[in-house]
TrEMBL record:
Residues 14-150 form the N-acetyltransferase domain. Residues 167-186 are annotated as: Disordered. One of its GO terms (molecular function) is acyltransferase activity, transferring groups other than amino-acyl groups. It comes from the Bacteria. Signal peptide: none annotated. This is GCN5-related N-acetyltransferase. It holds the Pfam family Acetyltransf_1.
């Protein structure tokens, strides 16, 4: 009998697709896991269902590996939010693939800037984002979720932006309503 050299196992395939109703429990639990550790804002199940078309799901070997959402704030900016990777598959490119899916969706929609509120500055920098000065450079529409955030007073999250090369400003973009910065946010 001929000896066959042992082959290393092939890496499980990573795929990203739009979320479906059947993903909501896994999305809720993964976000809840990290929210309980203070890494992100908790997201009620109702909120996930209502915003399900924003969400992408990553799978590794056909199993749920993480989620991320692109939420349109205005014609010139969309927020990457609800980004959560299952702890067992961290640091395998899942988060980056989810951000790439959000970016592709923003490009498809003709939205030239991505925004994120985050504590994971290093990760977003690896995805091409840069830190901004919260006291000066925030778009007037980025406060949409602050009112339901437990850290609303004395917020210490970082604001990060990514300008999407090659995506022009939409034509005829209306002025956004004036900033309504919630008290205590700075
Ligand atoms: C942050 C998070 C989304 C990153 O996802 P991930 O799948 O573990 O990260 P990736 O493997 O895609 O990493 C992509 C790159 O970012 C780097 N990176 C990942 N997490 C990092 C961190 N916390 N600090 C610095 N760099 C980080 C990786 O080393 C990799 O670098 P490379 O370009 O040299 O390869 C994930 O760890 C997570 O869900 N964390 C908890 C929840 C959270 O913080 N969500 C973000 C809220 S907005």
């Amino acid at each position: 009998m001929t000896a066959v050299a042992a082959q290393p196992p092939a890496p499980a395939a990573l795929t990203v697709r739009p979320a479906r109703a059947e993903d909501v429990t896994a999305i809720f639990e993964t976000i809840g896991y990290w929210a309980a550790q203070g890494k992100m804002l908790v997201r009620p199940m109702q909120n996930i269902f209502e915003n399900l078309r924003d969400f992408f799901v990553a799978e590794v070997g056909g199993e749920f590996a993480g989620c991320g959402a692109l939420h349109i704030l205005w014609g010139d900016i969309a927020e990457v939010r609800g980004l959560a990777v299952r702890p067992e598959v961290q640091a395998k490119g899942v988060g980056r693939a989810l951000v790439a899916a959000c970016e592709a969706e923003a490009r498809r929609l003709g939205i030239p800037v991505l925004f994120a509120w985050t504590y994971s500055v290093g990760f977003f920098e690896r995805c091409g984002f840069h830190l901004i000065d919260k006291s000066k450079e925030l778009h007037p529409r980025v406060w949409s979720e602050c009112l339901r955030c437990p850290f609303f007073v004395g917020c210490n999250e970082n604001g990060m932006l990514k300008h999407l090369e090659g995506v022009p400003m939409p034509r005829n973009l209306p002025e956004p309503p004036p900033t309504q910065v919630p008290p205590g946010i700075r």
